[in-house]
Each structure stands twice: as C-alpha cells, then as structure tokens.
User: Fold Thioredoxin domain-containing protein from Amanita thiersii Skay4041.
Amino acid sequence: MSSILTSATQTAHSVAATLLSKSQVQPGNAISFKDVKEEAPDQAAALELKGRNIIVGVPGAFAGVCNAQVPGYINNVQKFKEKGIAEIFVVSVNDAFVMQAWKEHLANGNTSIRFVADDQGSFTGSVGMLFDASDLLGGPRSKRYVIVTNGDKVEKVAVEEDPGQVTCTAAEKILAQL
Assistant:
C-alpha cells in the first residue's frame, strides 16, 4: 500500500511541476514576483523590481551546493552595487521560516540580500525554472539559475545544466558579465 501511495505522490509532484512551469524566460521578457513570501509565511506579495536586479534561484535552502553558491553573492554585494545592481534576491521553493533561518545561517542576518520563499513554486514556475526533484528533495524545486533584470525586463539568463553544479551561476561569473 505504501508503495502505491509513494508512486502516486511522485506522479502528482511530476505533473504539478510540469503544469506550473512554462517555457523558460528569455532576455526581453517581462517578469513579476507572484505570491512570494519574505518576512512571514502568511504574508504573500508580489515584489517590485526597480532598477537592475539579480535573482538567484536555487534548488533548496541549506543544500550543500546552495550553501556553497550563495556566500559568493553575500561577499560581493558591494561589488554588485558598484556595477549598478539595486537588489539581489535569493529565491527557493521553500517556506519563509526556512529562508529566514538560512539567511541567518549564512550571514547572521547581516546582509542586504533578500531571501525570498516561493513556497508554492508560483514565481519559479512563471519563469520556467521549476523541475521535478521528487527523488532528491521531495517535490518540485527550482533549477539553479540567475536572472539579471532591469526593472521587470530580463537582461540575462544563466541556467545550470546540472543543478548540482555551480559554473555559469557563480557570483564571480555573473559579476564579470555586468
């Protein structure tokens, strides 16, 4: 019985990831944050993108590779600002409690980087970055990506072919391209 339930759950997660995700966002497309949470789990809101921004999408808070990637952005905030970046957002399909705990873990809460919970995957799906990670992370998750925007218009998109690697989405690589 449990194997039937497990199989049904995995199928449902795979279908949900497929339905929530649309084609991947491209330069020139407009985007908006949909139903994300930053401060509290009961306060969903769309975040406004003003000026040039960087959105760093990661598969999971506290995951090893994500823990290795995000400090590059934290440590280089000033360099990004010098290149004209107004804000950096770290987005994951996790809840607000987890994202705030992760921010505290990585930076003792002392960073201007905004850690955003996309607990329903609505933003991640709207930019075409949702994938089925049921086998490893229990359900649909975010691909590892970076989107550079100017306001709500996409300037650049970098997506890792293997979400377990950090190559084209490393802070130093993105910084060099600005």
About this structure: The mean pLDDT is 86. Residues 2-176 form a domain with the Glutaredoxin fold (CATH 3.40.30.10). The chain has one domain: 2-176.
